[in-house]
Amino acid sequence: MSETADPLVLDFVEWIAREPRAYAEVVSTWKTSCPRLTIWEDAADRGYVARETLPGMGLIIAVTEDGEKLLRANGR
C-alpha cells in the first residue's frame, strides 16, 4: 500500500492533526481486533505521529513534521 493511497492512515493523521490527543483517547477510538487494520501502528511506524508527554496532559499523540508533510502532499 503506498503512502499516498492509504486513506485510513491519512484520516488518522488528519484527526490527530486537529489537536494533540490523549493516548487513551487514541487507543479507544482507533482500536481494532482485526490484525490487518493497523492504522495506528502504521502511522506511528512511518513517523507520522509520535507519543509525547505534556505537563498537565500526560501522554499524548501528536502529528510529526513528516505527518504534516503527508497531509499537505495529499491535499489535507
Beta-strand residue fraction = 15-25%
Detail the poorly predicted runs.
Answer: 1-5
Mean pLDDT level: 86
What would CATH call the architecture? Orthogonal Bundle
Shape: globular
Structural class: alpha+beta
Number of structural units classed as domains: 1
Query: Helix count?
Result: 4
Report the count of strand segments.
Answer: 3
In percent, how helical is the residue content? 40-55%
CATH H-tier superfamily: Winged helix-like DNA-binding domain superfamily/Winged helix DNA-binding domain
Which fold does the CATH topology refer to? Arc Repressor Mutant, subunit A
Distance between the termini: 19 Å
- Estimated radius of gyration: 12 Å
Order of helices and strands: HEHHEEH
Describe the 3D structure.
The protein has 76 residues and is of the alpha+beta class. It has one domain (7-74): Orthogonal Bundle (Arc Repressor Mutant, subunit A), CATH 1.10.10. Helix content is 47%, strand content 18%. It has four helices and three strands, in the order H-E-H-H-E-E-H. A three-stranded antiparallel beta sheet has the order 1-3-2. A hairpin with a 3-residue loop joins strand 2 and strand 3 (58-63). The two termini are 19 Å apart. The model is unreliable at 1-5 (pLDDT under 50).
Give the SSE layout.
Blueprint: H1 7-18, E1 21-22, H2 23-30, H3 39-45, E2 49-54, E3 58-63, H4 65-73
Antiparallel strand pairs: 1-3, 2-3
Helix pairs in contact: 1-3, 1-4
Task: Label this structure with key terms.
76 residues; alpha+beta; Arc Repressor Mutant, subunit A; three-stranded antiparallel β-sheet; 3 strands; 47% helix; globular; disordered N terminus
